[in-house]
Design a protein that fits this description.
By secondary structure, this protein is an alpha+beta fold. The protein has a domain of 91 residues. The strands form 2 sheets. Strands 1-2 form a two-stranded antiparallel ribbon. The protein has a two-stranded antiparallel ribbon with strand order 3-4.
């Protein structure tokens, strides 16, 4: 830093923020990892595809975490979307469903079969761990 008190001269101050910038970037990465870890037990589980579909659209240092399956949105909302048309065999036994291309909310909640899993898993993890997430970020960037 240069400081010249002579009248008419300019004060030229340069602050190196590279350490702070690195700490902020690392805090975002650690926060992303912790969010995934804290959400994982809440994410619906049948065969593991949804839990294993975690994605970082902006990269691991970005500010976004996503679960990337065709049904992730429906699971997150926690509501049955339809129109799902039942398909029966010749004896009248239900054999499956025909799914129409355009789906709408039905108002019926999804049923989660794995204990502890739920809809809106990020919101619920944030309620439980938000203070810990804040502490993680503050500790990483060096705020006391």
């Amino acid at each position: 830093m240069k400081l010249d008190t002579t009248v008419g001269n300019v004060v030229d101050i340069h602050i190196d923020t590279s350490r702070l910038d690195r700490n902020i970037k690392e805090a975002q990465r650690l926060l992303n990892m912790q969010i995934v870890a804290d959400c994982d037990p809440l994410v619906p589980f049948q065969q593991g595809a949804l839990r294993n579909s975690v994605d970082y659209p902006e990269g691991v240092y970005g500010g976004e975490v996503a679960w990337n399956t065709p049904y992730a949105h429906y699971q997150y909302i926690g509501e049955v979307y339809g129109q799902n048309i039942p398909v029966y065999d010749g004896d009248g036994n239900l054999t499956g469903y025909f799914f129409t291309p355009k789906k709408s909310p039905t108002g019926r909640p999804l049923k989660y079969h794995t204990s502890g899993t739920t809809d809106h898993w990020f919101d619920k993890a944030k309620e439980r761990h938000g203070d810990e997430w804040l502490k993680l970020v503050k500790d990483t960037i060096g705020e006391r």
